[in-house]
Automatic annotation (TrEMBL):
Keyword annotations of the record: Nucleus, Phosphoprotein, Transcription, Transcription regulation, Two-component regulatory system
Segments passing through the bilayer: none
Cell compartments where the protein resides: Nucleus
GO cellular component, one term: nucleus
Keyword Transcription among record annotations: yes
Annotated positions of the 4-aspartylphosphate modification: D83
Full protein name: Response regulatory domain-containing protein
Organism: Brassica campestris (Field mustard)
Length: 223
């Protein structure tokens, strides 16, 4: 398995032929792609986390390794390119399994074959394959893959949840302060009539005490 890091698009290449794997890996790297290669369809499913525990091409195969679990959870695959004729699981079988998965059906799948069989090509395209390349694959063929990978990448970015913007909350006055303020206003309203009544009484008293009694000096009484 070969893994090259630090590139824009990530391609999973599946082929049982070592020569063909190295050839497609080199071409994809020239196209600035990150490449992971495996030699069977079952290993591709394993990397994607789609392989059942009881599925295996080898009866002596061990359980899924921690690397495979981490790979399936952390690595984003933008495209799968697979050979059609492989022992155990064909490229067509791999295509079907990927398209049946809700999590991976949006990943573009490209089929490669050294045999030009129109019925085979039609069946793969009808099942959801984006392209069908005849071997040997050329660099010019891989230029057709960029639009498919770009579409997948943009779709995944659009599905990311947007950051929630918290609304600004105005600071509310403490209810204790509001109650005290209201109490003070009520007290002042009650005190105002009392003050006016007291003032009125004081004025009346001042007026009454200031009145002079009638004088009779200028009045004479005759008998």
């Amino acid at each position: 398995m070969g893994v090259v890091t630090e590139s824009q698009f990530h391609v999973l290449a599946v082929d049982d032929s070592l020569f063909d794997r190295k050839m497609i890996e080199r071409l994809l790297q020239k196209s600035s792609c990150q490449v992971t290669t495996v030699d069977s369809g079952s290993k591709a499913l394993e990397l994607l986390g789609l392989r059942e525990s009881n599925e295996s091409d080898d009866p002596n195969a061990t359980s899924t390794s921690p690397f495979v679990c981490n790979f399936a959870q952390e690595v984003e695959i933008n495209l799968i390119i697979t050979d059609y004729c492989m022992p155990g699981m064909t490229g067509y079988d791999l295509l079907k399994r990927v398209k049946e998965s809700a999590a991976f059906r949006s990943i573009p799948v490209v089929i490669m074959s050294s045999e030009n069989v129109p019925a085979r090509i039609s069946r793969c395209l009808e099942e959801g394959a984006e392209e069908f390349f005849l071997k040997p694959v050329k660099l010019a063929d891989l230029t057709k893959l960029k639009p498919h990978m770009m579409k997948t990448k943009l779709k995944k970015e659009s599905e990311k949840p947007a950051e929630e913007v918290k609304p600004e909350i105005e600071e509310e006055e403490s209810p204790v302060i509001e109650i005290l303020t209201l109490h003070q206003e009520l007290e002042s309203e009650q005190q105002e009539p009392m003050l006016s009544n007291n003032k009125r009484k004081a004025m009346e008293e001042a007026i009454s005490t200031g009145r002079s009694r009638p004088k009779y000096n200028d009045i004479t009484t005759s008998v």
